[in-house]
């Protein structure tokens, strides 16, 4: 529109940036609602609920008896 001379460049960029920022905020709100609902209704569909815990520390080992030589 700026090239055609129908709208000033700075004002057009300001409006376009503001409009896309609002779209991003609404997308974030919708995403939070969908993920929260899935977490409550079908947690098996979310990848982070399917991760199996791994044992990284070996603090819980079975006691061993000392062998005298």
Structure report:
This protein has a domain at 20-48. The protein has 69 residues and is mainly alpha-helical. It starts with 8 loop residues before the first helix and ends in a 28-residue tail after the last helix. The model has no long low-confidence stretch (mean pLDDT 84). It has one helix spanning 9-41. The radius of gyration is 28 Å and the shape is elongated.
Rg measurement, Å: 28 Å
Strand fraction: under 5%
Give helix and strand order, one letter per element, not per position: H
Shape estimate: elongated
Q: If you average the pLDDT, what whole number results?
A: 84
Major pleated sheet? none
Features:
single chain, 69 residues, mainly alpha, 1 helix, 0% strand
